[in-house]
Every structure is written in C-alpha cells, then in structure tokens.
Amino acid sequence: MVDEKNGVDKVQKLLKNSKLTEHELELIIKSAAKKPSQGQKIEIGRPKFRYLYISDPHIGHEKFHPDLFEKAVLYSKKYDVDFIIHPGDHLEGMSGRPGQIYELTHIGFDKQLTYAAQLYDQFNVPIFGIDGNHDGWYEDKNNAGAIVGKELEARVKNYTHLGQMEGNLNVDGVHIMLYHGADGTAYADSYKIQKLIESFTGGQKPNIIHSGHYHKHLTDFKRNVWGVESGTLCGQTRFMRGKKLEATQGFGIVTVSLTPNARDMEVEHRWVPYFEKEKNLFSYATPVKKLKK
User: Fold this and answer.
1) What is the mean pLDDT of the chain?
2) Alpha-carbon distance 56 to 236, whole Å?
3) 283 in any annotated domain
4) Is residue 284 included in any domain, yes or no?
C-alpha cells in the first residue's frame, strides 16, 4: 500500500509540475503505450505517381497560415495526388521559452493536436509524416512521453506515423525519405541538404529526400538523390526574426515517372509559393498636425 501511495503521489506531482490537464495526461499515456512505427511500403501500380508535400506548419502558433493549408488541400484535389508527405513539426509545441506562450493561438498538447487533426482530416488521400523537434517537446519536456505522430495516427483516419525525426516510404520501389533536422540553419540554403546527401553510404541512399526544420525551399540533385528542402506553412516567428532567418512559405507537388531503374526515374516538381499581405504599419498611429517649416 505504501508503494501504491507513493506512485499516486508521484503522478499527482508530475501533473502539477507539468501543468497538464487530466485529459492531456490520459492522451500522453495512451500515446506512449503504442508500438513504434516502421517504414511503410505502398503500391500505386501505375508508371507514374504524384504526391503533395507540406512541412513545418507549427499549428498552434499565431504565424501558422490556415489559408495556405486550405490551398494545399485544394491543390491535392485539383492535381489528383496519390498521397501527402509531411517531414515534421506538425505542432508549435510548448517550449518553456520566455514569451513563447504569448505567440500561441492554441495552448497545450490537446488543443494543438485537436486543431491539427481537424485540419488533416480535410485531405482525402493518405498522409505519411514524421515528428519534428517542436513535436518532440511534448515527449522530452518534463519527460512527459507524448508522441504527436502516434496520436495523430489514432485520430486521423488517413494519417500514418513513420517515426520521429526520420521516416521512410517505399512507393513502387522508389525510396522516399523524410528527415527533420535538429540543428541551426546554415549560411547558404543549399548547405544542409547537400551535406545530408553526402552523409549517406552508397547502398543506403534514398531516391528522394524531403527535409523539414529549416523553413527553406530548394531542390537539388546530388549523388543521384533528389533533395528537397520542403519550406513551411508558418510565417517568420519572433525567434526567426531575431536570428535574421527567412521563412520560405508554400508547399509543393512532385510527379515521379517510373523506369526499370529507380535511379533513372524522371521527377517533375511544382512549387506553390505564398506571400503574406503587407500590413499597414501605421494604421494604429494617432493623427498629428501638419508639420510647419
């Protein structure tokens, strides 16, 4: 009985210190109890397939653009894509960084994840994704153990969780890797994807790799690997502004034409950019008298 009481006391202390609601703690326990996801293999059965990719929406942050997300949903139907891929940072998370909470439209694990599930349910094709470092805060902070992707998989009928920070998808023999960095940005946008491709051993290279985290967009072809920095659905945050980092907003569509040798496949890429409307910086200003010379 003493051990049981100590266990209850520890749980109550964790609940108090983490500032989680009882419902959030229940979701975390259920999420952590699931088995890790593995790489996924799917078959389209045609000589050509098409997919749409989105990355780093940071749902729950004030700079997330719901209208850009809605556009991605419309394009997924307009271009009749076979599936969606997502290389991480579904949620903004709760960093504990001073002031971050004031940038949130949805506070806490449950509210952010519920909003994300409602958004992802709008896609009518399978979604394959990984967790990024912001998603990982719900696992690492206070050692809470919540895995965002697993809970999305439970809530969203078309969502498949491929892992944390990395995941792999095999589509009719084409190896698509999803990757999310954990370091800072580089002096040149192309540097990170180039070094990532260079790091693969010869027999383990993917055919296509989609990288999240850096909020940049570009495509590169190196060592017979198509590399894509996948952009973001989130505008420039206060943190990025302070670091003088650009947020390249938009999403993309990739069409793959298969050949007997996957390394000889043809890849067509379409980028759909997003530009924030300029705000009137002086709309709040108090009228003043005309200056006299």
Assistant:
1) 88
2) 12
3) no
4) no
